[in-house]
């Protein structure tokens, strides 16, 4: 599209919803925004008014494979080979010469947020109707779902078996379709993001790729881009394409079936004004007005002056509360509700600074300048004659005047006072010295170590452990049954831990010479903070609330995600054998066999340090294979013999969570018992049993051994009773409920009336129990009502052949208890 430059391949294009612009992305890693009027109107092209090239966006580091406008027209999404989805927003400060080139940006766009999550090229993105969601797909075979308002990641779908290259939404946003090189198109429900349908047959012999062409919103213009760096534009007459339905026809069709779109959140800057949507006639496009000002004067909104090219320039009126103004932002944000990584979509509530007196009219408690929009007829744009009589609605800088230095305008019809007053005549205003800088400035925030170039550190073992490591055997020689069996982790040059629920990384770097050792918190490619530590780093852990580092001198540092020390440095005396964390809980197991657990949020220990000697000293061949911690602070330690333990501070003893013994005869052992309860299937007890099954080989001699008559029943009931205690210890309510119902069914099948009645009494509690009077019995367990659980247990008893009468009797007791008899 540029005749004076060397052409580069264009991979994607997309037409703005109001038809005024088209965005392209290509091999040069740039996103370009073009005016469509010079493309469709030869006279406009010759006059250069408006200019064909509006803006060049240069934040990607790889070829741009896809560009997509939001339906509101406020935001632009782009995906690239650099694995990033970038969201762009209007920025009045970004106009002017493009750094490093001769290009000039007539209008400015800023990168609003980088969406990180793909592990390979981003091949396609798509906004759902109403911009409620944004979907992105890539060569990592993943489909990522983002919130269309906060831009936070909601879901990752990774069920495709090949590159995912296409994504689109149904007209009402209930289903999402993705196309992949695995020769399938899969349809996903937006209610739970699960698979609704899979289409394969039409693609059995397809080459595994697809092509996309773009039409304008009115359906009369077709755009196609090519690898030779050109774009072909095909313009059709209304008579050539019969039966084109306007967007309002779809709304009427959906109303016939009673469909009502769910309400959208209020206050987000890229949301279209409702009036702008209603203004679309059946056969006309009505873009919002393009503001044009002379200095600081604003008149009433009238169908404006007609320029030489026949375009209409609309005069605007700005209103505000006297002596109030929006704090000017250096980054030129267009709305206080623009969601970004720094504001999360919440408007700032800071007091506004004072502004000079002007003749603005009063409006009730508003932080925006309202724009009076002319009647629809004044801005109506004929589909058959695009842009011949009206300036495009989005139209910043698309006027036909001599200057392109227009004032910025929000798409929802509001102009920020800050953007008007920050930029004076011709957009070149100066900030007064008395104006305070807004903390939402778009300048790069200062970080501790963020200006340093990050270097890749090869992972190499470090042979020398220093004097502290040499003293460890002496510390452990005092008669302990586990002396010398717990080794500290291998000292290496580089360690890292991923932060729970995010893409952030907590790194540790050990120097091989005299340089200091350091820990670094990295978000994307940006160093957020760093700290230097006095001793070599042995282990790291990072949760959603804190980061911790264990050092060779036996100390542990705990940091927040901003680098603040949440706790004083902990001195354990000897190095750590293992370090683990979950939510607010931190676990440290030392080489001397002492276990520590802290609640970082409360800055308190969960229990006094406990020795693992009772579980490890039984055999000299036992080793620890896994050390983790649950969010409730329960430690989980699995040994080489398959037995998994936890420490119960109420009992002051180690307890068994599970062991291979149950696998020899329990019918409820994981792998033998099928369940449709997906949440329970992923619970911690099931994971532990799965790990035991994987590690412990099946002894064929034991399996074929003749067992006593009651072997299976005894081990099944014992296993389920043990599983109930384990689920309670690990705070897993779904697994507790599942084990309870299986236990009730088994004792009902066996006809064990005494066990059944004891279980019913335990769940029912005291007959005359009242809250706050009897503390010996709790009405709930793991957040579930015991009597509600009893109802389900009694239903199982009633359906059995042996305990029907017992179940009915207890149901009568529950009815009388509820009625107060």
From TrEMBL:
Instruction: List, for all copies, the residue spans of the domain called Protein HIRA-like C-terminal.
Output: 563-763
Keyword Signal tagged = no
Which windows of the sequence hold WD repeats? 10-35, 57-91, 115-146, 157-188
Q: Keyword Repressor on this protein?
A: yes
Q: PROSITE patterns, per this entry?
A: WD_REPEATS_1, WD_REPEATS_2, WD_REPEATS_REGION
What residue spans carry the region label Disordered? Answer: 280-307, 319-361, 420-452
Q: Which GO terms describe its cellular component?
A: chromatin; HIR complex; nucleus
Task: Write down the InterPro entries for this protein, in alphabetical order.
Answer: Beta-prop_CAF1B_HIR1, HIR1-like, HIRA-like_C, WD40/YVTN_repeat-like_dom_sf, WD40_PAC1, WD40_repeat_CS, WD40_repeat_dom_sf, WD40_rpt
Single biological process term from Gene Ontology: chromatin remodeling
Provide the protein's localization: Nucleus
Q: Where is the composition biased (Basic and acidic residues)?
A: 432-442
Could you tell me the superkingdom of the organism this chain comes from?
Eukaryota
Kindly state which keywords UniProt assigns to this record, in alphabetical order.
Chromatin regulator, Nucleus, Repeat, Repressor, Transcription, Transcription regulation, WD repeat
Q: What's the main place this protein lives?
A: nucleus
Entry's Pfam families?
Beta-prop_CAF1B_HIR1, Hira
By its UniProt entry, which SUPFAM superfamilies does this protein fall under? WD40 repeat-like
Question: What residue spans carry the Polar residues bias annotation?
Answer: 292-307, 338-351
What protein family does this chain belong to? Belongs to the WD repeat HIR1 family.
Briefly state the protein's biological role: Required for replication-independent chromatin assembly and for the periodic repression of histone gene transcription during the cell cycle.
- The identity of this protein, by name, is Protein HIR
Protein's organism:
Trametes pubescens (White-rot fungus)
Read off the lineage from the record. Answer: Eukaryota, Fungi, Dikarya, Basidiomycota, Agaricomycotina
